[in-house]
Design a protein that fits this description.
alpha+beta, OB fold (Dihydrolipoamide Acetyltransferase, E2P), BirA Bifunctional Protein, domain 2, 5-stranded mixed beta barrel, 18 strands
């Protein structure tokens, strides 16, 4: 642990002195009857003379965020979960004992105050304090300059400080909560049932990703943190839950970037007797209503770009997107070698052994994906990269699948689900061959899931939406770490703590 600051030592000395005087610096018997926002709502519209004639008194609890001490009177701003409000301390009103307690208070301390609302000469709504309690003495001083830190990792690591001093950060997470609440209400109103499926799985499935491995001692068995809930949710569809969803964590042992965190939140939902096209309509309706709810408009700003969520959104196939945004011709869709030649021109390090379908997707991701700024449904992915989806009836080399792209980011992935157990077994076997060839992200064989499919799964469409990426768009946040309260970071170096 690094040496403590001089201010820390001063605060610690104050704490010891208070205890010697018999003052408990961490009591738990103060009950506020109001909040900063409620005070503003109730008294913010009243004039000074109206407040002067009022006998109302309120009690508030909050953190001291600013403090101006003058002789026998002082002003401060306290902050609670709803906002900030000015409070006024005067020795003649507080009395000797409470005034001496106030003199030991610092910015960052949590206090309880009781008093009457009034307006200062400058017109600011203020509470004239006649009762004071110290509720928690803060030993670490709040930073004077925090939001502009170049080392933004410090803000992520000490999110508790970030939330204290930056109201806009708190607003991001309020919008995140409102987003998840809205999605739950939207799906529940359409007869979807919310469930929870295992986080620890014997066989990680449902996505092409590298899992985290752990070990269960009592069973002496390796387990995997789930990379997706898909195969368990489909088991529930087979069991009769025809409309089902889950909002929960997935874990993928992959890199960290502005769009990736190893632990992330995913919405997955499945609807029987529906196709991927039905889910495009549902997704458009849900997100459009969500944007309207949060912003009151369908046009929002994201990192200097105006996004227009007004339906209908653009729909384009992978093939048409490559032809529109790239230099490739029709021959790349017929000839694997031609496709590989185009990919090598875009990425000389691309592996030679990729399947034709994977080559086409790589080309798409290079030439088209970054240019899909407005909400866009990209459809008809190659079947080789869609091992759990139904084949297209007109072209069996394609999947009945879409991804939703916004700002060049994949926000959602959906498809008409493969419910043919024989076809599913063959695709798992093909994935197993790819694993043996060195693809660590290829799907594993799951015999129990095949057995479940053999009982019959109704025609179904399913979708996953990345909650973190969606919230990034909705809150104008440039990094996924801005919308995760405690993103994964490297271990803190010894001596770096406060």
């Amino acid at each position: 642990m690094k040496a403590r600051s001089q201010e820390y030592q001063q605060r610690l000395n104050k704490l010891k002195a208070l205890r010697q005087k018999g003052v408990d610096p961490y009591p738990n018997d103060f009950k506020p009857d109001s909040t900063c926002a409620l005070c503003v709502e109730k008294y913010g519209g009243l004039k000074a003379e109206e407040l002067e004639g009022s006998t109302d008194r309120v009690s508030l609890g909050g953190r001291i965020m600013s403090l101006r001490k003058f002789g026998r009177a002082s002003f401060a701003h306290i902050q609670d979960r709803t906002g900030r409000l000015q409070v006024y301390f005067k020795k003649d009103i507080l009395g000797e004992g409470a005034w001496e307690l106030f003199r030991e208070c610092d910015i960052g301390d949590i206090i309880g105050v009781t008093g009457r609302p009034f307006r200062t000469r400058t017109g600011e709504l203020t509470i004239e304090v006649d009762g004071l309690r110290l509720l928690a003495k803060g030993l670490n001083p709040l930073p004077e300059k925090w939001h502009g830190l170049r080392d933004v990792e410090a803000r992520y690591r000490q999110r508790y400080v970030d939330l204290m001093v930056n109201p806009e950060v708190k607003d991001v997470f309020r919008k995140r909560t409102e987003t998840i609440r809205f999605i739950r209400e939207f799906l529940a109103s359409r007869d979807f049932i919310e469930v929870e499926t295992p986080m620890m799985q014997l066989i990680p499935g449902g996505a092409a990703a590298k899992p985290f491995i752990t070990h269960h001692n009592a069973l002496d068995t390796d387990l995997y943190l789930r990379i997706a809930p898909e195969l368990y949710l489909k088991r529930l569809v087979i069991g009769g839950f025809e409309r089902v969803f889950e909002i929960n964590k997935n874990f993928r042992n992959e890199g960290i970037s502005t769009q990736h965190n190893p632990e992330f939140t995913m919405l997955e939902f499945y609807q029987s007797y529906a196709t991927y096209e039905d889910l495009m309509d549902l997704t458009e309706e849900m997100i459009t209503a969500l944007v309207e709810r949060l912003h009151g408009t369908l046009k929002i700003e994201y990192q200097g770009q105006t996004l227009d969520f007004t339906p209908p959104w653009t729909r384009i196939t992978v093939k048409d997107a490559i032809l529109k945004y790239g230099d490739a011709g029709e021959e790349v869709f017929r000839d694997r070698q031609e496709a590989l030649k185009v990919l090598k021109g875009l990425d000389p390090q691309a592996p030679d052994g990729l399947s034709h379908g994977k080559i086409l997707v790589e080309i798409f991701e290079h030439v088209a994906e970054p240019r899909l700024i407005q909400p866009t449904f990209v459809t008809h992915y190659p079947i080789e990269v869609s091992p759990l989806s139904k084949r297209n009836a007109q072209d069996e080399g394609l999947a009945d699948r879409f991804e939703l792209m916004i700002m060049g980011k994949e926000i959602a992935n959906a498809f008409s689900e493969l419910n043919d157990p024989l076809d599913q077994r063959e695709r798992f076997l093909e994935q197993a061959r790819e694993r043996e060839a060195g693809d660590e992200e290829a799907h594993r064989m799951d015999e129990d899931f095949i057995r479940a499919l053999e009982y019959g799964m109704p025609p179904t469409a399913g979708e996953g939406i990345g909650i973190d990426r969606l919230v990034m768009i909705l809150t104008n946040s440039p990094s996924i770490r801005d919308v995760i309260l405690f993103p994964l970071l490297r271990a803190e170096r010894q001596g770096q703590g406060g």
